[in-house]
Amino acid sequence: EVQLVESGGGLVQPGASLRLSCAASGFTFSSSAMSWVRQAPGKGLEWVSRIFRDSSNTYYTDSVKGRFTISTDNAKNTMYLQMNSLKPEDTAVYYCVKDWDPAGRGVDYWGKGTLVTVSS
C-alpha cells in the first residue's frame, strides 16, 4: 500500500524557515517523480516544486524560486522541502504527491497534507 505522510508544518512568522518532510512507503521511491503541491485558503492547487527521477531536474514555481529547495533521501524514502524567507502568501496546506513514473507523466497518489501558516 502506497503511503505518503507529510510532516513539519506549523505556524511561523514572516521571514522564518521550515522544513517539510514526506515519508514514503509502498513503492520504489527512487523511481517516481515527486512533487510538493499547495492549496492556499480559498484558492486552487498550485504546483510548488517537483523533482524528476529520470534526469534529477527540478522545477519551482516562480513565487518560491530562490527561497524553497526540494530534495530527496532515497535511503530514507523521504522527500523534503526546505522553505526559507517565508511570506504570508506561502500559507497553505502542502501536499506530497507521487507520479507513477520517473519522468513525471502523471500523478497517482497524494498525501493528506500539512498546514503551513505564516503570520505575525
Question: TL;DR of this structure?
Answer:
By secondary structure, the chain is mostly beta strands.
Could you characterize what this model shows?
With 120 residues, this protein is mostly beta strands. Helix content is 0%, strand content 51%. Strands 2, 4, 5, 6, 9, 10 and 11 form a 7-stranded mixed sheet that branches. It has a 4-stranded antiparallel sheet with strand order 1-3-8-7, with no helix packed on it. Strand 5 and strand 6 form a beta hairpin. The protein starts with a strand and ends with a strand.
The major β-sheet equals: 7 strands, mixed
**What class, by secondary structure content?**
mainly beta
Gyration radius (Cα, Å) is 13 Å
Distance between the termini: 40 Å
General form? globular
| Helix and strand element order | EEEEEEEEEEE
Low-confidence stretches: none
Share in β-strands: over 45%
Would you report the number of β strands? Answer: 11
Return the average pLDDT rounded to an integer: 96
